[in-house]
Amino acid sequence: RPTTPQELYNLRHASARNVVERVFGVVKKRWAILTRPPQCPMDIQACIPPALVALHNFILKKDENDLEKYLGDDCYDEQPGVRGSGEINFGSLADGYTTRTEKQQAENRRDEIAQAMWEDYLLVLAEQGEQVDSGIAVD
């Protein structure tokens, strides 16, 4: 049982990471491009995994065996990456490095999340009638 906000965060982070790795395993089986580095610029490479996950989810939602009817000529974009109001923001994954400021902001956000998780965890323990002493749950 976790005894600090950091331990709880790490436990839940590890659980979430396992789920993500399982999902990537499933998606890699369907899309071979994810198993070898594509020969295209990094900004394009950064767009491939989320696009393939979206496509995978679309296939799961629709009938996988009836997919051909969704792949007609009208499904192709005249301007890929553009939707009505303008460019799609894919984030800065492909930009390269992380600045010291960005790293500090990420660490601060992580600590805020860990603290919020901890407070929720303590509330759940209290609702279950377990005593909490100095942040450590006692049965």
Could you please describe the fold and organization of this structure?
- Residues 72-85 have low confidence and may be disordered.
- β1 and β2 (86-87) form a beta hairpin.
- The chain has 4 helices and 4 strands.
- α1 crosses α4.
- The chain has helices at residues 5-30, 42-45, 48-61, 100-127, and strands at residues 82-83, 86-87, 131-133, 136-138.
- The chain is flat, with a radius of gyration of 22 Å.
- It has 139 residues and is mostly helical.
- Helices cover 52% and strands 7% of the residues.
- It folds into 2 domains: 1-77, no CATH class; 99-138.
- The longest helix has 28 residues, at 100-127.
- The protein has a two-stranded antiparallel sheet with strand order 1-2.
- This is DDE Tnp4 domain-containing protein.
- It comes from Dendrothele bispora (strain CBS 962.96).
- Pfam families: DDE_Tnp_4.
Q: What order do the helices and strands come in, and which of them pair?
A:
Elements: H1 5-30, H2 42-45, H3 48-61, E1 82-83, E2 86-87, H4 100-127, E3 131-133, E4 136-138
Antiparallel strand pairs: 1-2, 3-4
Domain DDE Tnp4: 4-57
InterPro entries: HARBI1_dom (IPR027806)
GO molecular function: metal ion binding
Through-space gap between termini: 11 Å
- Unreliable spans: 72-85
**Order of strands, widest sheet:** 1-2
Report the total helices: 4
Structural class computed from helices and strand pairing: mainly alpha
User: Biggest sheet: strands, sense, closure?
Assistant: 2 strands, antiparallel
Radius of gyration: 22 Å
The amount of beta strand, in percent, is: 5-15%
Helix content: 40-55%
Order of helices and strands: HHHEEHEE
Number of strands: 4
Structural shape: flat
Our count of domains comes out at 2
If you average the pLDDT, what whole number results? 78
